[in-house]
């Protein structure tokens, strides 16, 4: 199957340079070799159709309106040996603790600024810093980050690095479950020889994490009412919202389903109003409450912030997390880990240059063809330049943008993202991958075993975002016995 | 059992169900007409038939706002896949799917899949040439999708609040459609009372539109008297598309929803339901002439509108503003 497969200069998840599979992929390799070409094609088709029929889609918007699309699924899993995973898990817990300390700190005493570790203007000029709205509030469990989706990549040596901390509304968790479900349906043979971490208890862990955020004024004698707040069916991540609400057994609500009376939040039911205690919201801060943020928001609930400030309702993730996960603050996360925890980061960052530094700016302008330049406020693969894959006019256009607004951009060396085989259109070929790891925080921290492996299916492409042609893979963490097996 | 269901969700379930039922009924009417058309005696009669079909499946006024004259092919297009007709089959099925999509978390997975499968296939239908065979296949697919949906609902949903809202939507839609079809048929009968045409054929058509021919003929072999047909479609308590059957079941469902109790907020609704039931049972259909029947049916359709409004008010289903 993989006879002509070339690993090239990249780190490959599955294959060695000589064309042999790595140890933890040996079983998988042998099993796949037993499939005929026809089996593979047929299974591939069945898997894609499965997603379409179930309507597991996201919506892509362009000038002609929205189109529902499925995320292409690739059956070659990312297999992670136990030991590597334990390191990732530790690294994630460490990072979350530091980031949560940071958020608690900057909305209270700002010790990290006083100590001169992070420049004050970087925080105060940040558009996602909602000092006026939420500073000084004591939130339940003092936890700002109920759910994070941390994007990890591996460099050419196989070293894991954090690329982004998504601390606002990370999406994609439903795909982790659906990928596993489809995988078991369509490729049951592959599971016989592997012992992998199950995902079964993860949704009840998630539910527990939600309900542990009891607001200060909740009725202690009643179990709290939690809801998931969605912008509605036109949102690109709507399927994610449906899935999580359904699986956790909480109500899926829209802004118009709720009302605030005397600083208490209620939802409108057929038998009148019912009090809401905890809101897992999947809409952005600035749309939450037209009285406190954007007055034109029709998605939010007027008065929500007042209820939040009074301790009548919990909002997850916390308001104002955006200040901690933008691309400029990212550079300081290793410093946060040292400052708050007195530890060295377990999983390092990708080296990053600020362009507001004139010396750096000159360097970046000269070397733009070998760097990746990103807008600090953008996400989803938008407004970025991948130097080695750009042409002269794109580079010139970007240089102009950078010179006009150097604070708005950062640059990183083009990392040779690791690759893994993908099987599409009847053949195996190497594709770049990354891994979104989901970290749930409540009374305790729980890292979902595995996560969403995203793959850039366009050959040579480095962009894994689903809005730009990326696909998904199942991610297997081998259990202890599975490890011995492999 | 979900007791405190969100009003928006209840509203979506209600409209999902009405739209599925509407699509099935209209598809059946159109399908019957496409066959009858082949037997029409002359062009004039055929055109009159089509005019009635617009009245049953959409609104003639809306149609003539868009087109100057009644052209058969344009009309078929208008009733099946036109985006400009709010009651076209395509639109009804799309509304049903959108409503199902916004309530996916409480619907059986298979129900969503059935509606989604129709949607996925619809793209292919739009690209097929506009032949009679393709139209008939499309109509059959609409009917089958509706029936499969109902099968999923019946076989897998708990008999709780969401189920009740789905059923009430279906019965109200059905009762209204039956009244409308009979109204159009009576009108035609009255207009053509002096013309020596085959009135038998009108009542046969009405029964076929409502999928009641087989059931009727078992009760009344082999006659086709207008008063029997009317009585059957209005008052037969065992036929699931008669006005009476539908209204009895709405009352029963609301009663169950309220746990057999009448509260201050549901009092008006109960009174209206009982009044309608009384009006139906106390009316002697067989003794009425066409004018009386038409005013009875008009009155019933007004009642349906009032009822639909009261139902929405009682359960706060008033359509909230749409978020963008």
From TrEMBL, chain A:
Residues 77-456 form the Circularly permuted ATP-grasp type domain. Residues 465-486 are annotated as: Disordered. Transmembrane segments: none annotated. It comes from the Bacteria. Pfam families: CP_ATPgrasp_2 (PF14403). Coiled coil: none annotated. PANTHER family: BLR5612 PROTEIN, SLL1039 PROTEIN. This is Uncharacterized conserved protein, circularly permuted ATPgrasp superfamily.
Automatic annotation (TrEMBL), chain B:
Pfam families: Alpha-E. It comes from the Bacteria. InterPro entries: ATP-dep_Glu-Cys_Ligase-2 (IPR051680), DUF403 (IPR007296). Residues 5-315 form the DUF403 domain. This is Uncharacterized conserved protein, Alpha-E superfamily.
């Amino acid at each position: 199957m993989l006879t002509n497969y070339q690993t090239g200069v990249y780190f490959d998840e599955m294959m060695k340079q000589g064309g042999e599979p790595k140890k933890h992929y040996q079983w998988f390799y042998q099993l796949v070799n037993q499939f005929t070409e026809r089996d593979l094609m047929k299974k591939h088709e069945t898997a894609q159709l499965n997603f379409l029929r179930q309507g597991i889609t996201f919506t892509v918007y362009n000038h002609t309106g929205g189109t529902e699309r499925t995320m292409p699924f690739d059956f070659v899993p990312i297999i992670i040996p136990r030991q590597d995973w334990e390191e990732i898990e530790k690294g994630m817990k460490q990072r979350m603790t530091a980031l949560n300390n940071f958020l608690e700190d900057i909305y209270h005493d700002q010790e990290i600024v006083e100590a001169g570790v992070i420049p004050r203007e970087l925080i105060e000029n940040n558009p996602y810093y909602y000092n006026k709205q939420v500073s000084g509030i004591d939130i339940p469990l003092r936890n700002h980050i109920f759910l994070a989706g941390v994007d990890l990549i591996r460099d050419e040596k196989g070293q894991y690095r954090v690329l982004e901390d998504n601390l606002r509304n990370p999406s994609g968790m439903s795909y982790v479950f659906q990928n596993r479900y489809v995988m078991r349906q369509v490729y049951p043979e592959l599971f016989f020889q592997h012992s992998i971490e199950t995902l079964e208890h993860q949704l009840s862990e998630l539910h527990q994490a939600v309900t542990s955020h009891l607001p200060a004024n909740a009725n202690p004698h009643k179990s709290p009412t939690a809801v998931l707040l969605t912008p509605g069916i036109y949102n690109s991540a709507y399927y994610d919202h449906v899935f999580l609400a359904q699986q956790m057994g909480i109500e899926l609500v829209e802004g118009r389903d709720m009302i605030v009376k005397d600083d208490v939040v209620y939802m409108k039911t057929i038998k009148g109003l019912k009090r809401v205690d905890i809101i897992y919201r999947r809409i952005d801060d600035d749309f939450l409450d037209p009285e406190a943020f954007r007055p034109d928001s029709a998605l939010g609930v007027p008065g929500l912030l007042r209820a939040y400030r009074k301790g009548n309702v919990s909002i997850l993730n916390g308001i104002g997390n955006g200040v901690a996960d933008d691309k400029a603050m990212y550079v300081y996360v290793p410093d946060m880990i040292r400052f708050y925890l007195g530890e060295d980061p377990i999983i390092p960052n990708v080296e990053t240059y600020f362009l507001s530094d004139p010396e750096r700016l000159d360097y970046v302008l000269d070397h733009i063809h070998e760097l990746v330049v990103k807008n600090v406020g953008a996400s989803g693969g938008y407004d970025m330049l991948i130097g080695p894959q750009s042409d002269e006019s794109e580079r010139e256009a970007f240089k102009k943008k950078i010179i006009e607004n150097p604070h708005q951009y950062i640059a990183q060396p083009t990392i040779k993202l690791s690759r893994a085989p993908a099987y599409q259109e009847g053949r195996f070929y190497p594709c770049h991958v990354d891994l979104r790891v989901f970290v749930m925080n409540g009374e305790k921290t729980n890292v979902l075993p595995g996560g969403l492996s995203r793959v850039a299916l366009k050959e040579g492409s480095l962009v894994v975002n689903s809005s730009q042609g990326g696909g998904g893979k199942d991610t297997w963490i081998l259990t202890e016995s599975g490890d011995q097996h492999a | 059992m979900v007791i405190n269901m969100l009003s928006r969700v209840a509203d979506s379930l209600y409209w999902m169900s009405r739209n599925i039922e509407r699509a099935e009924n209209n598809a059946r009417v159109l399908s019957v007409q496409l066959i009858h058309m082949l037997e029409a005696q002359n062009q004039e009669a055929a055109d009159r038939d089509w005019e009635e079909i617009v009245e049953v499946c959409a609104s003639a006024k809306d149609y003539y706002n868009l087109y100057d004259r009644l052209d058969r092919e344009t009309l078929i297009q208008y009733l099946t896949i036109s985006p400009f007709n709010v009651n076209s089959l395509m639109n009804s099925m799309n509304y049903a799917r959108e409503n199902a999509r916004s309530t996916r978390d409480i619907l059986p997975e298979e129900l969503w899949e059935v509606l989604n499968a129709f949607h996925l296939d619809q793209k292919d239908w739009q690209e097929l040439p506009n032949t009679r065979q393709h139209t008939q296949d499309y109509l059959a697919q609409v009917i089958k999708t509706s029936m499969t949906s109902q099968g999923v609902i019946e076989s897998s949903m708990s008999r709780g609040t969401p189920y009740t809202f789905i059923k009430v939507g279906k019965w109200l839609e059905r009762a209204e459609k039956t009244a409308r079809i009979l109204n159009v048929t009576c009108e035609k009968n009255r207009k053509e009372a002096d013309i020596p045409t085959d009135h038998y054929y009108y009542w046969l058509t009405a029964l076929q539109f409502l999928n009641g021919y087989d059931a009727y003929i078992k009760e009344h072999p082999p006659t086709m008297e207008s008063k029997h047909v009317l009585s059957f479609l209005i008052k037969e308590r065992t036929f699931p598309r008669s006005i009476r059957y539908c209204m009895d079941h709405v009352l029963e469902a609301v009663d169950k929803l309220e746990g057999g109790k009448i509260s201050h907020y549901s009092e008006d609704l109960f009174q209206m339901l009982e009044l309608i039931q009384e009006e139906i049972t106390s009316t002697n259909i067989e003794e009425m002439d066409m004018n009386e029947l038409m005013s009875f049916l008009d009155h019933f359709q007004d009642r349906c509108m009032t009822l639909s409004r009261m139902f929405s008010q009682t359960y706060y289903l008033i359509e909230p503003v749409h978020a963008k």
